[in-house]
Amino acid sequence: MTPLRTLLVVLTLALLGAVAPVAPLPAASAAVCATDPATPKRQLRAMWISSVANIDWPSRTGLTVAAQQAEFRAWLDLAVSRRMNAVVVQVRPTADAFWPSPHEPWSQWLTGTQGRDPGYDPLGFMVAEAHARNLELHAWFNPYRVANHDDVSALVTSHPARRNPSWRFAYGGKLYYNPGLPAVRAFIQDAVMDAVTRYDLDGVHLDDYFYPYPVSGQTIPDSAAYDQYGGGFANVHDWRRENVNLLIRELDQRIHQAKPHVSFGVSPFGIWRNAATDPLGSATSGLQSYDAIYADTRRWVKEGWIDYVAPQIYWHIGHTAADYAVLTAWWAQTVRGTGVQLVIGQAAYRAGASGQDAAWQEPAELSDHLHVNRRHPEVSGDIFFSAKDVKANRINAFATLAAAHYTRPALLPARGGATAPAAPALGSATRGSGGVTVTWTPGQGQPTAYAVYRVDGTPTTADPCAFADARNLLATTRKTTFTDATASATAAYTYYVTALGRTHQESGPSAGRSVPGSGGGAFSVVLDNAGAGFTAGSAWGTSTYSSQLHGTDYRFAEPVAASDPAWFRAAIPSAGSYRVEVWYPANAGYNSATPYVVAASGGSRTVTVDQRTGGGAWRSLGAFTLDAGTYNVVGVSRWTSAAGYVIADAVRITKL
Prior knowledge:
Pfam family, one: Golvesin_C
Distance between the termini: 40 Å
Keywords: Signal
Protein name: Family 10 glycosylhydrolase
Largest sheet: 8 strands, parallel, barrel
Helix content: 10-25%
Organism: Nonomuraea indica
Strand order of the largest sheet: 1-2-3-7-8-9-10-11
């Protein structure tokens, strides 16, 4: 499958800059800074950690407390290693609880026996561990499912579904609470609200299970409830939809009345309705959640009853009945102007799995979904199902995605209109054997977390554009100290810290603190294709087509099975470690695997760059040991099997 990319139009770059210390400045507006779509400033990145049937965690029932906790910490560490910033953890999978609920029994998925105390408070533990890593924890509740079987006697005797037989029904071999009963609706809300009020949750998350998915030849046994409560509705279908609407609307009200900062989100089936059924629907031909499971998700968005919607768009790009690109565009249009955030539910479980369509055997399929997302500014991030598939990384699919989209950390999207806390006061930046340690003190406004930025060198003034995307973002933390273990032992840097409120509004940056370099680290040179140090063969054309160019023009050539490189020649003052960066305009028609050749000491090294995205900005190829002298240091080769022009525009070489 051909990966899809978007072209970000580069706007005017304001050249301001930052000395240590300097007065704090407001963050730059994206309208005056060239931002890199590969390093967005804000993006929700999460994975579902599923407990039902021990899909993810715990891996099996009956583990010791220590083993359960070690497994959960490992899931959080995986999220951090993949530069995620949230987890969505299933805490009420089958009308049971992963906390000492006064309403429902302990979950069987903890100990193997429903109602048995696991010996600790899993939800309290999970929240504390997630926040220690500055991950948001969204507690995931399945509202109506009682059991994945229909044997009532298998439920613990104290189970509310046993004590209240009228609340339940069996359908398709499973037990459900009846959504049409006001008492059931109130009970479900009370069960959820117990967790909301007792724990420091960041979000409440419902999945796609509302009324049961249809089972051929069976009818939902709710006629008695319809007779009792369905007055005023033209048919049972409208009544069922309103029952679910009431749950969503009332739960939204109760959550935000108790804790306004808690986010309420739903992850529905990916299709609301098909356009053939409803002109407001999507150009798809699959199951319609509005009609099949009575989930009017479009209305929930338009009414603002939820803070975010995470549709499960579990189909590949080009799928005949439900094209990922088509559905993403439909959901983007649906949330536009509503204030409801859109995050996409991604089918990590399909990537590289046996029995899946051929598209899912392509390592880039999952990554290409996020390239589609870049077309739509309404898309605020992604959630991956599920944690074990993120870890499995079959066919290197998730690593491919992370390399293209998660190379830097990202702040979570801001929610609501709260005022940002004041900027912190940066006290010191000290180089030690483990890196550079930065310390600060909070400003006013009760910050929840902090973002740490690093820019190269010791600029004389703070550049607002340094904070416009995440290219300079090192980490977020809830502590007031951070050690930059990635810092070179010889390079000069300037550090800044911002403060983040509970709903992620960000302060302006602190005054900067610099650490000096050593060993000639001040050397830096920019080589443009129009300069004297550039050489290229006759096959290389010249263009001014893209506004993302560096200088007056750039060079392009067709790929061939021969190197024929365009070379950038430089005078390297002394042997040592140098950072090599490249600048190119990006376009969907350019090459996805352009080979850059660096004439490093000990032998040339080749780095491939996707020139379909991330243009109009300096992109690092990495640090290389270079010999002293004047020679061709960086080449752009034509030898690639990928289609599209290879581009040679500019190179920057900086001594570390």
